[in-house]
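Tokens for chain A. Residues wanted.
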């Protein structure tokens, strides 16, 4: 299995000994040894995946990288975060997924209103199995624990990914900026309940939910 390691916080190094990884198309910045690159259809999920992603609007263009040596990946100088999966599932925005072990399965999952508030459709990308994935964030990501005693409410523009046994619900939101008379609050917020982890970034992507 390929070995993922960070060089700094914005470059991912992947050591391969004949293995393969799936990475965001165009994210390779350097490599040594012998590497082969192949563009993959439908987010690496074949024709069925291509059709599903066209229908759902959760677009993702990836390439397979296979060989012997080290390959380095980066995307617009964004911060990179490593996530290890042990037979569980990661839910992540397609634009925030940089690289995965080739053995991890990717797909799409219905998310409901959260996707609509971001203008990304009603679906998100899933990564499932055992192995490593690298996700990117605009600024250093914060990993927040959700437990039965401590549910979590997140601004949809700051959400990146989540994993674990979590239930999502949506609620009308007002922010501290609204209370201060500055406006700019999100019309909806995501509430997570259960047991798991939520990844958020310190920079909000533009949403179409409207201001409160």
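Reply:
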């Amino acid at each position: 299995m390929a070995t993922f390691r960070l060089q700094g916080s914005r470059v991912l190094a992947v050591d391969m000994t004949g293995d393969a990884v799936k990475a965001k198309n165009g994210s390779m910045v350097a490599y040594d040894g012998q590497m082969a690159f192949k563009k993959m259809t439908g987010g690496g999920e074949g024709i069925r995946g291509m059709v599903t992603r066209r229908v759902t609007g959760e677009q993702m263009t990836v390439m397979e990288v296979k060989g012997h040596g080290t390959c380095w990946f980066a995307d617009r100088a964004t911060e990179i975060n490593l996530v290890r999966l042990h037979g569980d599932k990661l839910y992540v925005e397609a634009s925030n997924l940089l690289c995965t072990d080739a053995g991890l399965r990717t797909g799409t999952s219905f998310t409901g209103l959260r996707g609509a508030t971001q203008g990304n459709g009603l679906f998100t990308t899933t990564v499932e199995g055992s192995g490593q994935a690298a996700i990117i964030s605009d600024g250093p990501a914060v990993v927040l624990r959700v437990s039965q005693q401590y549910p979590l409410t997140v601004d949809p523009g700051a959400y990146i990914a989540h994993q674990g046994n979590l239930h999502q619900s949506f609620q009308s939101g007002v922010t501290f900026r609204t209370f201060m008379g500055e406006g700019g609050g999100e019309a909806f917020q995501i509430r997570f309940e259960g047991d798991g982890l939520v990844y958020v970034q310190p920079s909000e992507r533009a949403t179409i939910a409207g201001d409160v």
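The chain is about 10% helix and 55% strand. The radius of gyration is 18 Å.
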